Every structure is written in structure tokens, then in C-alpha cells.
Amino acid sequence: MQNVLIRAAVPADADAMNRILSDVERDSQRVDFERITSGRSSNKKDASLVAEIEGEVVGFMISYVFDGGFGLERSAWIATLGVSPSYMGKGIGTLLAEKLISIYRRRSVKHVFTAVRWDSVDLLSFFKTLGFYRSDFINLEKKL
Question: Does the model's pTM come out above 0.90?
Fold first, then answer.
């Protein structure tokens, strides 16, 4: 896709990111992307990105770095992503992921993880095309 600008997410992108989230998720709740992006932009280890076309945010990817734990060296986690429905299937998510992976590779991050619901076939397929596979970790949950 031409004319796509991939750049760091900033607090001013928060409303657009929430709009995208509400367009793609049933019963989505408002996320404080303003707080998330202001903290991430000041932290030089993390990378959170938006995809912009002609001044409009059409996709985003929020991630963070985790320094060690449970036997892992520095790793990155993709916490959430979204692409506006009118731009799905046009490579926006792939551009975001490739830029994110490139950033973390330069920062000597050795592993990038994410968690996907087992029944999210579209997301599983998306991450698999990017080279993601099941990790040695199992997600555990305690409901409160």
C-alpha cells in the first residue's frame, strides 16, 4: 500500500486509536491510549506505532519491553493492535509489525511475544504469516 506513514504513537492519536478499537471489537471499552502513549514515548525501550494515511490514523500497534523474568532475557510484548475495517487486508498490520520488529531487532531484543485468543482465527493467521509460533509459555489466568 502506498503513502502509508508508520510513526511513533503519540497522545494526540488516542481518540483515533479508540475509534479503531470500537470499530473492530464488540463491546470494546475505552482504553486510556493517551496515558499509554505518553509513557511509551518517553521510554526509549518500548515501541508503539500508528499507521497514517493522508493525516488519518488507520492502524496502531502497542508494545512494551520486559527486562527478564521466568528465565527470559529482554523480550518485547505486543499488547494490542487494530486496523480500521476499511483498511483491513491491505497490509497495514504487516507494515506495523515489520517496523516494530525492525525497531526491536536494532535494540537487541531477542524475542517478541503476544497473546491471542484461541478462537481468533484471523489474528492467529496474521501472526503466523509474520513468523510467530506457539511459545514455550502457557498463559495462566485468575479471575477476580
Answer: no
Q: What is the pLDDT of residues 68-80, one digit of tens each?
A: 666 677 889 999 8
> Phi-psi category of 131—alpha, beta or left, where left has phi over 0 and alpha has psi -120 to 50?
left
Rounded Cα distance between 83 and 91, Å, is 10
What structural domains and CATH numbers belong to the chain? Answer: 4-129 (3.40.630.30)
The three state secondary structure string of 6-36 is EEECCHHHHHHHHHHHHHHCCCCCCCCHHHH
Over the stretch 10-41, which tens digit does the pLDDT of each residue have?
Answer: 999 999 999 998 888 777 677 778 777 776 55
> How many other CB atoms sit within 10 Å of the CB of residue 113?
14
> Using CA atoms, how far apart are residues 51 and 4, in angstroms rounded to an integer?
6
